[in-house]
Design brief:
This protein has 96 residues and is an all-alpha fold. It is built from three helices and no strands. The longest helix has 32 residues.
């Protein structure tokens, strides 16, 4: 059995996005969908377009540089929020 990085796809409400793929990428995507359909044992054919979101999601989930940058961005935003909130609290205390 082929061990693919994607498993069965979840049914989720999509956001419509239009994009263009090079023909070679689409052919590979179509082949991947066919292999996935057979390896998971599905009766209906997997549409190649349904693979794009899980592939991007998987890529982002395993990209260490992205995860680190995301944590840094998140913590810097939280740091500002906490700092700003602290200043508001101090100002409120001074008014009493």
């Amino acid at each position: 059995m082929t061990k693919l990085k994607l498993g069965p796809l979840e049914d989720d409400k999509p956001v419509k996005l239009t994009t263009e793929l090079p023909a070679a990428v689409f052919r590979d995507l179509r082949s991947y969908a066919e292999i996935l359909t057979h390896s998971v044992g599905l009766m209906t054919r997997t549409e190649p377009a349904k693979l794009i979101a899980p592939m991007i999601e998987r890529r982002m989930a395993t990209d260490r540089a992205f995860a680190k940058a995301r944590r840094n961005t998140l913590s810097s935003h939280l740091g500002h929020s906490v700092h700003d909130a602290g200043q508001e609290t101090d100002a409120t205390m001074d008014c009493r």
